Amino acid sequence: MLLSMEHLRKEYPNGKIAVDDFNLQVGRGEFIAFIGTSGSGKTTTMRMINRMLKQTSGTIKINDKDISKMDPVKLRRSIGYVIQNIGLMPHMTIQENIEMVPKLLGWSKEKRAEQAHKMIELAQLPDDMLKRYPGELSGGQQQRIGVVRALAADQEIILMDEPFGALDPITRESLQDLVKHLQEDLGKTFIFVTHDMDEALHLATKVVIMSQGKQVQVDTPENILRHPANDFVTNLIGEERLIRAQPNILSVSQIMLKNPVSITPDKTVDDAIELMHDRRVDTLLVTDDAGVLQGYVDLEDINRITDPHTAVGDFTNRQVFFVKADSLIGDTVDRILKQGVKNVPVVDKDKHLVGIVTRTALVDIVYDALRGAPEANEEPASPINADIHAAATHDEGGEIPQ
Amino acid sequence: MMHFLATYGTQLIAKTGQHLYISAAALALGVIVAVPLGILLTRMKHGANFVITLAGVLQTIPAMALLAMMIPLFGIGSTPAIVALFIYSLLPILRNTYLGMQGVSPTVRDAAKGMGMTWWQMMIQAEIPLAAPVIMAGIRLSATYVIAWATLASYIGAGGLGDFIFNGLNLYRSDLILGGSIPVILLALLVDYLLGKVETAVTPRQLR
Question: Which of B115, B205, B206 is most worth mutating to test chain A (most A CB atoms within 10 A of its CB)?
Fold first, then answer.
């Protein structure tokens, strides 16, 4: 186990028990969310991991080493730390902020600078932002920096204390995507404190529900939705979410249409029009030879091109909104509705195109969920027939799976 | 005026030099003592108020009285003057250092500590740079005080531009009074301006 916490207890001098017999084993690459009402001890527990607080009794081990026997300064440098109010140093440039822990660890100047460039790219922010000061950035951009700063020295474990609590919903969502990406693709381990149930269910591989210093339920988001341990958990999740639980535990790959219509960038406009005509679609997804999603072209784009020999790659829209095959339908619904797109390509972990989700396909899911009678097993009326613009083939329409 | 400069020119330069020396020495001592003390006070749970009040009390002693009190301890000359002015310089620097350090956001401290800074690193890399503008404002205020009060140092034989003023008062010579006062004012303004530049320079770009 990467991190193991056994019989943790925190008692304050005034007799208040903040954490009582807390036990948790965390494996590498897990995403643990601590959730509970305020005063439930979730932040206290998290702060014991990097010894910002000292437990009254119990042990915390990282890679089987008892942290109470480690130098607290060294320990903290090896653990990423992100707090709600961002905590960037206002008098340092973004670059200096990112380089903080590497500098404390004595990395060379070149290595630090290289890392800073890598990190700003990871944060999906422009490189020239390194020279700016935190106050010149928006809250969301600052917290992006806050997140990658916590990884700058290759920390394995990252602690986050309600990091997105102060951000607006759309910014929050994009940051959630960022940390999810860091966990899934870089194998980082996150301990994440939140009071937002949606956030916990969406991000975590394991949710720890706490109340008054005690663990109430520790399980995967799916199991918590299926079998809430008691009324407290049910209340915390909320009736509405439990009704919606069905789409929330189905993944996109289970409802997507396979074999979306795609084209490679080297084909010409002529080819594209022919393909559209044959398959009766108005949008083509562009993939490279290996099947990696590059973008899309639609009828309007093609209309604008006068030379029929122009390569598709020359006018591909690269700004394409896509979802991952293993993401949950519930989230996908929200995003598709918010983005206002007709259909969304589905990709696997390496951005290979594997399918497409159409708006019409989602309607059925939402309808079922709202009626509270999931009928995913029933063959839905082929939604594609109703939508001649859908970028999927007719014959695949009936294959909407359970 | 040309006549005044022709007659007293060299003397004026020498007295200005003395004046500057006394003020600078007193201020330097004040910074050396009050800045670390102010930082230390923010680390103590109790006692901060007591020390700041004490410095406030020292400030209320009339300047002439304080200078006179220095004579039995240090005799006459520039040493007692420097000590007396040093005592005066303490309060503004001490208070501003204390307030500046207190004003550093707890979030910044939490982040700095949580990322693995030692006590000393937190101080040097985070807290002092952030408190620097406020500390600098205190030093600037002290500097103008000290330059103005250094005039009185002439009274205990420390020299400085006060010599002109006291002589002028004794001899009913307004040219001497003005010849001493105007350079003091100019000196105070100049030093204030220069320290103001320093204050801007130490202020993080973002906080200006």
Answer: B115
